[in-house]
Amino acid sequence: MNRVFxxxxxxxxxxxxxxxxxxxxxxxxxxxxxxTGPSMEPTIYTDDILITERLTLNYRNLQRGDIIxxxxxxxxxxxxCKRITGLPGDxxxxxxxxxxxxxxxxxxxxxxxxSNSSDSRSYGPIPQGLIKSRAxxxxxxxxxxxSFTE
Amino acid sequence: xxxxxFVKSLLVGLPVGVTILDTVGYVARxxxxxMQPALNPDRESTDYVFxxxxxxxxxxxxxxxxxxxxxxxxxxxQKIIKRVVGIEGDIIATLGYKREVVRVPEGHCxxxxxxxxxxxxxxxxxxxxxGLVTAKASCIVWPPSRWQYIKSFLPESRHPLNNxxx
Lengths: 150, 166
Prior knowledge:
The complex is a heterodimer of chains A (150) and B (166). By secondary structure, chain A is α+β, with helices and mostly antiparallel strands. Helix content of chain A is 21%, strand content 32%. Chains A and B meet through helix 1 and strand 8 of A and helix 1 and strand 8 of B.
C-alpha cells in the first residue's frame, strides 16, 4: 500500500515538473501554432503549422514585414496571425480610405490576403502588448517548409 | 556526465517557480499616485499588492469596480494598475476624452485611476483591449498596517449611463 502511494506521489511530482517546464518553454521560448483561416494566404494556408518564438521578441526590434501572433483585440481568448505593416509614426490607410497615424506603443497589422482579412484596416492599430510571439518558420506541410526571417 | 545536485534542483525549481508566479499570482509594488486614495494613500508609504493571475485566467469577465493590472497600451514594457469603470457595451461619460460619451467596444474595458486628473487612463488613451489585462489586484500585503482585501468599488458618479436607474 505504502509503495503504491509513494509511486503515485513521485509520478505526480514528475507530471507537475514536466507541466511547468512545458509551460515556461511555450510561454517564454518558442511555441507551435496551427493556423486557420484565409487571411494570410498565400503565405500561410489553413492547417499550416508554424514555429513561433518570443525569446528575441523585443518591442524595440519589431520590424515591418514580421509575421506575428497576437491576441485578438476584440476577443482576448482568440489569437490572430498577421503581418506588421506599420510601426509607430507611420501613416496608414484604413478600410474607408482615411489615413491614420500609428500611435506610440502600437503596430499596424494586415493579412497578406487583403481582400479577405479583418485587420488594422478595420479596427485600427493594436497595442504592442497584445503581441505574443513572432513566426520563425513554417514546418508543415513538408514541401513548403520555409523560414520567415531573412 | 554527472550534473551537480544543486544545478539539477535549479533546472527543475526555476520552471516550477515561474509557472506558479504565472498562474497563481505574485506581489508587486505600486508606484505613483494615480490610484489614491485606494492605493498609496500618502506619500510616505508604498503599498505592495498581491496580483491574482488565477482570477483572470479562469474567468474572462472582469467586473466594474475591480482593480486590475495591465500592460500599458502606450508602452508595452510598462504595467499600470487601474480600476475598471466600464465593461463591453457600457456607455461611459468620459472625463476629458476626445469624445464626451463613449460606448465600450466588444472585448474592451474602460479603466480609470481613482485620482481623477492625476492618472494616465482611458480618458487619455480610450478603451483598452481585455487582452492587455494581466491580473486582478486582490489584496494589499505590505505594509502590515495596510493589510486588507481590495474591495470592488465604483463611485456613484462613475456608473455607466446605460445602467443607472432613472
